[in-house]
Amino acid sequence: MPTHQENRPAEQRIMVVDDDRYLLMAIDQTLALNGYAVDTFASPIEALEQLDKKEYAAVVTDIKMPVMDGLQFLNHVKAVDRELPVIMITGHGDIALAVTAIQGGAYDFLQKPVDEDVLLACLVRAMEKRRLVLENRRLSLSLAEQRQDLTRFYGLIGNHPAMHRLYDIIKAVAAESDPVMIYGETGTGKELVARAIHETGSRAGHPFVAVNMGAMPAEMMESEFFGHLKGAFTGAIQRKIGKFEYADEGTLFLDEICSLPVALQSKLLRVLEEKTITPLGSNTPIPVGARIIAATNKDLEQEIARETFRQDLYFRLSVLPVRIQPLRERKEDIPLLVEFFRQEYSYGKMQAPPPFSAATIRRICDNPWPGNVRELRNHVRRLCILGSIEPNETKERGKKESAAEPENDLPLKIYMDRREKDYIEASLRKNGGQVMKTCSQLAISRKSFYDKINRLAIDLKSFRAG
């Protein structure tokens, strides 16, 4: 088993398997002369043993071999690492086998005699794919570690002094059982703070029940909060446990507390004072031990002045106030958040979007972000999907495309498919319909090429001369 350049990284190491020692030697020399580390095997069984010990960028294997043929070998390789590119070598009479191999997960196939340039071009594409896979795995591990480090704050991210003060407040508040009032603009992460308080304290093993008051119809609130007995009203066909009872010994998070009707505010105040609820249709109070955490993006003192919020409830809920700074007041955290959201988007994907340019980061930091962290996260995801296009360029491009393309209100997938089809057809025209040249220009395998041809309904014959 000759091995060249042992110190080359996994992204550069190639496994070659063939029972024909002359062909094995020829491929070995070609790859070694082009700077690759090569491990050669005359036996696929020996190759599989080595596959458990080393990481490879790609595998090149013959289809027809004794003891274990290339298709069986392919299945074993995919069982070890399903994303490892496998390039099959086939004779002229084995095209059907090669097609079967492609369907079974092979990256590409080459016909004998193997052309050195074609082999090298195929490996370049395969290794680029492998590099992205390995990079994505590293990013996924890194992201998992970051998530683990941030577990106690449940996604709250930031090194700004204001965030460190918030982390300290969370830990201090979590040790108590008094009600908490969280103040923060839309998108600052009020529910994340509430969850962090819950998970950091002694209630972590009990339910965390989040209720968005602004999204709940007023007529349903009393039943949702306190529950009801069967027959309590028309449509009450069975006993219903309310949010307070369900969150017993845990935490009940009331988001947008200002949306609670004044009539129900007095009932909430009574629950806070007496620690009991009475389901609709019942006369028997039920003790509840849920901790209340409320949140608002409004000025409660102004709401009190407007008589839309009870002052006594305000005092009862504001025993432990927690304030979250808007993102515009901690811009130093924006690059950290951008990178975290980029990696979050990349998690589990084959191809990770590249890091954003310094110019893009500067523009992002200059944005006031009225929607705060939520708006920033959505923006980063949009950049990851559509590409890092500068805002000014986006506006200009939008004007041009709206004038030139009356169908720019199409769903994104249809729009992108049309763009992809135009690009592939342009490449086919340039290359006179030659598949290999087109694949090389597009840097994709023949399997990917034919998949796209079928999906996009491209007529290959129309691009071939004669």
How would you describe this structure to a colleague?
- One of its GO terms (molecular function) is DNA binding.
- This is Two-component system C4-dicarboxylate transport response regulator DctD.
- The protein has 466 residues and is an alpha/beta fold.
- The protein folds into four domains: 10-145, Response regulator (Rossmann fold), CATH 3.40.50; 155-325, Rossmann fold, CATH 3.40.50.300; 328-404, Orthogonal Bundle (Helicase, Ruva Protein, domain 3); 412-463, Arc Repressor Mutant, subunit A, CATH 1.10.10.
- 49% of the residues lie in helices and 11% in strands.
- The chain is built from 19 helices and twelve strands.
- The strands form three sheets. Strands 2-1-3-4-5 form a five-stranded parallel β-sheet, sandwiched between helices. Strands 7-8-11-6-12 form a five-stranded parallel β-sheet. A two-stranded antiparallel ribbon has the order 9-10.
- Strand 1 (13-17), helix 1 (21-33) and strand 2 (37-41) form a beta-alpha-beta unit.
- Helix 2 runs parallel beside helix 3.
- The chain is elongated.
